[in-house]
């Protein structure tokens, strides 16, 4: 059995049909983790959907109600950029429940991996860019409410700026948000994170890893969060359709190891969420996300956890 839990629900799939966001990747990752023998069925835990009370720790009640009852306006659906369905609404609530469960388990086991989530473009009162519910923020707020943590950090390595997360935690000294992203890309408006690393188009492995490593060091030592949510987007990959960075599969693995190992060495628990990934070849997106799970196991084996 793995030394940490994988959180997954078959209804994570957002039922998007032919869409640039391959939300069937959640199932494909689950299936390949089993097929490769990395995990067994007992390693997976299925979450409950986040309750309205938990969702409204972050989101406006009106937004949650319109999303859950199919009453989003035409403009709201346009901004979300994905078609509405009850399965889509349920998938977001499950992802938020999943990241919350994953965060709790990370505190016990050092690491956890939600085979979903990372919907960092969602704001309290609206969704954007394929993200309706900000599972990252819901999980942090819930664990703070339960007094399991006081300080959390978000390290957002998706190709795209974590605008919703940055806006939600703006001015909150208990949550440090770091986003490393391609500057010249979606979203147009980038509300400041605690620390933003704006990368030029075409940045490759070496510059990416140097800048992330340098920026990461100070807050993880100085702020010393109990929980780090690692937004492990697959879209900085050089063959991504919506990304403009130039990372290789190997560079992405080094990124994963850097974030997870550094956090564990500081005694900070790590919850992994997936976020974007639009590689020309869907298998590459699946491989990148699976490599993150493998990096988590290697880091935990190497560093251990106090429990
Ligand atoms: Zn992205």
Class from secondary-structure proportions: alpha/beta
Shape: globular
Q: Give the strand line-up of the largest sheet.
A: 2-1-3-8-7-4-5-6
In helices, the fraction of residues equals 40-55%
Query: What integer value in Å does the Rg equal?
Result: 17 Å
The largest pleated sheet is described as: 8 strands, parallel
Hetero groups: zinc ion
Q: How many E-type strands?
A: 8
Q: Which series of helices and strands comes N to C?
A: EHEHHHHEHEHEEHEHEH
Strand content: 5-15%
3D architecture notes:
- Strands 2-1-3-8-7-4-5-6 form an 8-stranded parallel beta sheet, sandwiched between helices.
- 42% of the residues lie in helices and 12% in strands.
- Helix 8 runs parallel beside helix 9.
- Helix 1 links the parallel strand 1 (6-7) and strand 2.
- With 307 residues, the chain is of the alpha/beta class.
- The site of zinc ion has 7 residues, from loops.
What layout of secondary structure does this protein have?
Elements: E1 6-7, H1 25-35, E2 44-45, H2 52-55, H3 61-68, H4 74-80, H5 86-109, E3 111-114, H6 135-145, E4 152-156, H7 163-169, E5 175-182, E6 195-199, H8 205-222, E7 227-231, H9 249-265, E8 269-273, H10 282-303
Parallel strand pairs: 1-2, 1-3, 3-8, 4-5, 4-7, 5-6, 7-8
Helix pairs in contact: 1-10, 5-6, 8-9, 9-10
The structure holds zinc ion (ZN).
């Amino acid at each position: 059995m793995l030394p940490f839990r994988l959180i997954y629900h078959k209804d994570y799939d957002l039922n998007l049909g032919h869409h640039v966001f391959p939300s069937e990747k959640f199932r494909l990752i689950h299936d390949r983790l089993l097929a490769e023998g990395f995990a067994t069925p007992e390693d997976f835990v299925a979450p409950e959907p986040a309750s309205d009370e938990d969702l409204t720790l972050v989101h406006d009640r009106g937004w949650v109600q319109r999303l859950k009852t199919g009453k989003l306006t035409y403009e709201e659906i346009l901004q979300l950029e994905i078609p509405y369905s009850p399965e889509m609404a349920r998938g977001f609530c499950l992802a938020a429940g999943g990241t919350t469960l994953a965060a709790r388990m990370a505190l016990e086991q050092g690491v956890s991996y939600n085979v979903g989530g990372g919907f960092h473009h969602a704001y309290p009162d609206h969704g954007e860019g394929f993200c309706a519910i900000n599972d990252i923020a819901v999980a942090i707020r819930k664990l703070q409410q339960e007094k399991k943590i006081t300080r959390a950090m978000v390290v957002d390595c998706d190709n795209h700026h974590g605008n919703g997360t940055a806006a939600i935690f703006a001015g909150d000294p208990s949550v440090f948000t770091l986003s490393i992203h391609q500057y010249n890309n979606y979203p147009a408006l980038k509300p400041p994170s605690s620390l933003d690393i704006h990368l030029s188009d075409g940045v490759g492995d070496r510059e990416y890893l140097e800048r992330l490593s340098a920026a990461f060091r100070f807050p993880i030592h100085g702020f010393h969060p109990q929980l780090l949510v690692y937004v492990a987007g697959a879209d900085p990959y050089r063959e991504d359709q919506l990304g403009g960075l130039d990372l290789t599969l190997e560079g992405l693995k080094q990124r994963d190891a850097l974030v997870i190992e550094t956090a564990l060495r500081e005694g900070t628990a790590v919850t992994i969420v997936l976020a974007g990934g639009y590689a020309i070849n869907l298998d590459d997106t699946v491989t990148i996300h699976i490599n993150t799970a493998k990096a988590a196991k290697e880091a935990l084996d190497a560093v251990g956890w106090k429990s």
